[in-house]
Amino acid sequence: MPEVNSPERLGGWTRFVTARPRLALLAALVITALAVFAGSGVADRMGSGGWEAPGAESTYTTKTLEREFPASQPNLLLLVDSGSASVDDPAVAAEAARLTERLAGEKDITGVGSYWQSKSPALRAEDGREALIAARIEGDDKAMGEVLDRITPAYRGAHGPVEVSVGGPVAVRHEMQTIIQEDLLRAEMIALPVTLVLLVMVFGSAIAALLPLGVGIVAILGTNAALRGITEFTDVSVFAQNLTTALGLGLAIDYALFIVRRFREELAAGADTRAAVGATLRTAGRTVLFSALTVAVSLAAMLVFPQYFLRSFAYAGIAVVLLAAAAALILLPAALMLLGPRVNSLDLRRLLRRGGGRPGGSAEPFASAAVESASGWGRFATLVMRRAPVFAVVTAVGLVLLGLPFLGVKFGTADDRQLPATAESHVVQQHIRDGFPGSPGGGLEVLAKGAATPAQYAEYRKRITGLPGVLRVDGPVTEGRFAYFSVLPAGESVGEESQRLVQDLRAEPAPFDTSVTGTAAVLVDSKHAIADRLPWAVGIIVVVTLLLVFLLTGSVLIPLQAVALNALSLTAMFGAVVWVFQDGHLSGLLSFTSTGDIETTLPVLMFCVAFGLSMDYGVFLLSRIKEEYDRTGDHERSVTFGLRHTGGLITAAAVILAVVMVAIGTSRVANTKMLGLGIALAVLMDAMVVRSLLVPSVMKLMGKVTWWAPAPLRAFHRRFGLSEGESAPVPAEEISMDAPERDKITSGA
Q1: Helices (H) and strands (E) in the chain — how many of each?
Q2: What's residue 358's pLDDT?
Q3: Residues 468-486: what's their mean pLDDT?
Q4: Cα separation values, 151 from 104, 105, 156, 157, Å
Q5: How far is CA 150 from the centre of its chain?
Q6: Which among 217, 238, 557, 723 has most CB atoms closer than 10 A?
Q7: Which residues pair with 78 in a beta bridge?
Q8: Radius of gyration of the CA atoms of the chain, in A
Q9: Neighbours of 562 (CB within 10 A)
């Protein structure tokens, strides 16, 4: 009968990835080169919006107004500063009129208007020193950006007695897109070398350290090519590129760490290269596959939401997870086949050890370090399980307390304050907020459709003027069968009072069809769309996670425990997001402007990403616990074994992923900063608190009932389930034996 690790038992998958390793690596090199070509310029095809729900009333109204009344929806604003003179000064007015006329003659620009034409108080600063020229640039994000780049140099700066600055929504989006691309490049320059240093510290060997980094680069380049293809069919947010980099590096390194670590363990135990690769794929390879599926499902749940901002992260996330797993399970084993024991070469830590240590090509230094690390984690696991009630209660209560600030969350919309305080479009919008009456751009528009008489319009305007929270109503402006009214709220543009006003306007009866848009209306519709789809997204994540963890463990209770503890691990992240980014604590240290609220879609995004990453580490731990439980049937010993053999690995992987996310968090865009720093915190809390303290203590308290499943489900798992270990479950009669006696049996003594 062949041995477990003999070539006869390697299986089709192992034979496939190891039969021609040089050919596999050459094919990967060619495909990666093609991906670089295919993914070039992907950022230029991405949008910087996507927070609105496509089928919402506010979206329909906005598009209709853009079509019928271009001047009602300006996206370009020129802030004209007259210095010490008044904007009504004849010389200032003449220069402003010349700029307005010139702007109206530009290609692809419509709806040009200014204070000097309309004398509207909303377009003039209260101190009389600034006024606005408004216009609309036609086209999609890319076309608008090209127009903005073309005309901005001609208008920005000094023009006779006035100084002109460029702002408006199109300038905000364009500047945000540019900054995100610059920040992403900087984040990669920070993350790659720091990650390489950490990998060298983990593995010692420079060769072993380069392998996970290579897998990550392949995943990132492949995902950029995939996103470039997706932009041909649908809108994709530029923010998704940040997730591509973070998950591409983070997950690829996680998977490669797990596989390389297991391969080196097999070499240290005396296996030859081919047998070590086969054992690694049958064990760690299965775990990586399960992990990739759980993360992909968490990210795929964002596809149920209508906002393309969230859907974009699903596109990017699913692509990068699958590519990272594919690279780790196909390319990495091929590289290991070629390297063999040389994977331990260039042991840089040897230079720091007194006496120089053993030669870098030996697996013994790694084996010795692994044993020392495992023994430390073993002692820690024993301590946690000995005081399980204390650790379980204190950890759970602490996590709940850290999450309490999220109870005071306020939802808002993304605006220019995401940008650095020095960004020109931010400066322009801040001037408008601080110095103009009613903050132009924060008003509401009511679209009227259908034939109506002037008396009917006047009566409707009178009624909506009397609604609570209305400062002023302008209009109607009519065009054929359409008309619109501009309603200026008395409170903040997205405050509770403005949101109530949206509901009141929509409920107000009229002799014609009405619909409402504006900043507050977009927020109301976005919150409704998320609340409507959120149960479906959570349900998909929970149900599929329960199924996958059951297939891995064969237990009914472990999947429930995994979902509950994963959710608990996210409390610190959500609490910190509100305390820091909504309430403004540490805003000076982190260099961002607090808006007093959180963009509506971000908590959903952060939940899906962080939950998936938590399950990633959970699968790593549970797979080793299950492997040992199948071998021995000893519950407590299995938990200790799992923590001993994965504690250091999970911690190292979490630290490396946190470094990548913190690099993303150095972005000058506040939402990207929140995403990066928030997920970094969630990852560290999950690895260092939940996996190290809460999971072992809860499993100790639950005892062997942890592994319970009804007979039909046990039969289902025996037929369809997967596990990391290859040994059959220990017979019941062996479970009752003392550990030393059982070890003799399981070791073949």
Answers
A1: 29, 11
A2: 45
A3: 88
A4: 12, 11, 9, 12
A5: 33
A6: 238
A7: 133, 166
A8: 30
A9: 26
Measured distance CA(230)–CA(301) in Å, rounded = 18
Give the pLDDT mean for 508-516: 92
Cα–Cα nearest to 305, from 497, 124, 629, 56 = 56
Predicted confidence (pLDDT) per residue in 121-140, tens digit: 888 998 999 999 999 888 87
User: What is the pLDDT, as a whole number, of residue 59?
Assistant: 92
As to burial, measured by CB atoms within 10 angstroms (0-12 exposed, 13-18 middle, 19+ buried), residue 586 is: middle
* Per-residue DSSP letter, 477: E
The token pair that represents 58 in the structure block:
């506010």
- Quote the tokens at residue 274: 């081919």
Both tokens assigned to 233: 């069919």
CA distance 141 to 43: 11
Q: In the predicted model, what is the mean pLDDT of residues 169-173?
A: 90
Q: Give the pLDDT band (50/70/90) at residue 577.
A: very high
Q: What is the DSSP string of 91-150?
A: HHHHHHHHHHHHHHTSTTEEEEEEHHHH--GGGB-TTSSEEEEEEEE-S-HHHHHHHHHH
Distances (CA, A) of 496 to 3, 207, 501, 597, 702: 70, 57, 9, 11, 46
Note the pLDDT tens digit of each residue in 338-382: 888 887 777 665 655 544 444 444 444 444 444 445 567 878 888
Q: Are 166 and 76 in contact (CB under 8 A)?
A: yes
Looking at every residue in the chain, the average pLDDT score rounds to 84
* Residue that is written with structure tokens 């007979």 in the block: 711
- pTM (2 d.p.): 0.85
Mean pLDDT lowest among 5-19, 604-618, 621-635, 704-718: 5-19
**Average pLDDT, stretch 679-688?**
93
CA gap 432, 435 in Å, rounded: 5
Torsion from C-alpha of 172, 178, 181, 183, nearest 10 degrees: -80
Highest mean pLDDT among 71-80, 305-314, 575-584, 646-655: 575-584
- Residue 219: which of 336, 298, 313, 321 has the closest Cα? 321
Return all residues near 18 (Cβ < 8 A) that are at least 6 apart.
Answer: 10, 274, 277, 278, 333, 334, 337
pLDDT in tens, 437-453: 765 556 899 999 988 88
* HEC assignment per residue over 423-442: CHHHHHHHHHHHHCCCCCCC
Do residues 682 and 399 lie in contact, with contact meaning Cβ atoms separated by under 8 Å? Answer: no
Centroid of chain to Cα 377: 31
The reported pLDDT for the residue numbered 304 is: 93
Beta-bridged to residue 515, according to DSSP, are 447
Helix (H, G, I), strand (E, B) or coil at 85: coil
DSSP character at residue 74: -
Dist. CA 691–CA 696, nearest whole Å = 7
Give burial (CB, 10 Å; 0-12/13-18/19+) of 679. Answer: buried
Among all chains, which residue has been given the structure tokens 């296996």?
271
The full length of the chain comes to: 749
Order of strands across the sheet with 162-167? Answer: 109-114, 130-137, 76-81, 162-167, 157-159
Nearest alpha carbon to residue 76 among 2, 204, 207, 172:
172
Q: What is residue 439's predicted lDDT score, i.e. its pLDDT?
A: 57
Chain position carrying tokens 């504006």: 518
Phi, psi of 356 (to 5 degrees): 85, -25
